Amino acid sequence: MSYFAEKRREVMLHVEGYMLETMHTYLKPIDTNWQPSDFLPDSSSDTFFQDIKLLQEKAKDLSYDLVAVLVGDTITEEALPTYESWLAMVEGVDKSEQGGWMRWNRHWTAEENRHGDLLNKYLYLSGRVDMKQFETSTQYLIADGFDIGTGHDPYRNFIYTSFQELATNISHRRVASLAKKDGDTLLSKMCGVIASDEARHAKAYKDFMSQIFAVDPNEAMVAFEDMMRKKIVMPAHFLREMGLKIGQTFGHFTDAAQRLGVYTAIDYVEIMQQLIDEWNLAGMRDLDATGEKARDYIMALPDRLIRVADRMKNPTMEYKFSWINA
Question: Which of 109, 168, 291, 313 has fewest C-beta within 10 Å?
Answer without folding.
Answer: 313
